[in-house]
Amino acid sequence: MSKIIDTFIAPPCHDEIEILYQDSHLVLVNKPAGLLSLSGKNPQNLDSVHHRLVKVFPGCTLVHRLDFGTSGLMVIARNKPVNAALCQQFSQRTVTKVYSALLCGHLENNEGTIDAPIAKDPALFPLMSLCAIHGKPARSRYRVIERCFHTPGDGTPLPVTRVELTPETGRTHQLRIHSQQLGHPILGCDLYGGLLLPGTEQTSRLMLHASELHFVHPVTHEVIKALCASPF
């Protein structure tokens, strides 16, 4: 198998992490777009959600990650037992994650499901690929919120559909590649066709935001329904 070489260098992110909730067990944050969840091996990729938060909350660990270009809700564990309990909820798929996105073009159907297995392919890194034979099961649901127009930097109105995306599995790049499979990539997605249509190259960011996170607090057992409005 060919070796994966990651040459990506993250540009500086000047936006702050917004702390939405904190107690002695966990922290809920709003991650800005353009910030790594975890520091990379390259010293130039040191800045990340974890790198910043561990200075404020010593010993905190990530339970899950968001892509570099994705903004929105993340839950951070403040100790190992809480991390283990939250990780178990994620692995058992009892956590509900809902995303807001702008998809290129106007979708025909108001809702639907994308069921397409996703596989890693070192030859295509950093892209993932759809593969019925070697891919792991991946399923996403979408629901149209509105069909409208988005005007990026050059003033050209682009037809877009605002959708609510709910991944039932948690594969790398799942929502991005499933949206492409739907024929309507996420606006601003550099890897899966979201910058190919005329006018889309002016898009400032990946139009994907983690807007809801539902889980059970590992200590109080309270049902947490965290909400974070989309910035676009």
Automatic annotation (TrEMBL):
<dbReference type="InterPro" id="IPR006145">
    <property type="entry name" value="PsdUridine_synth_RsuA/RluA"/>
</dbReference>
<dbReference type="InterPro" id="IPR020103">
    <property type="entry name" value="PsdUridine_synth_cat_dom_sf"/>
</dbReference>
<dbReference type="InterPro" id="IPR006224">
    <property type="entry name" value="PsdUridine_synth_RluA-like_CS"/>
</dbReference>
<dbReference type="Pfam" id="PF00849">
    <property type="entry name" value="PseudoU_synth_2"/>
</dbReference>
<feature type="domain" description="Pseudouridine synthase RsuA/RluA-like">
    <location>
        <begin position="25"/>
        <end position="180"/>
    </location>
</feature>
<protein>
    <submittedName>
        <fullName>RluA family pseudouridine synthase</fullName>
    </submittedName>
</protein>
<dbReference type="InterPro" id="IPR050188">
    <property type="entry name" value="RluA_PseudoU_synthase"/>
</dbReference>
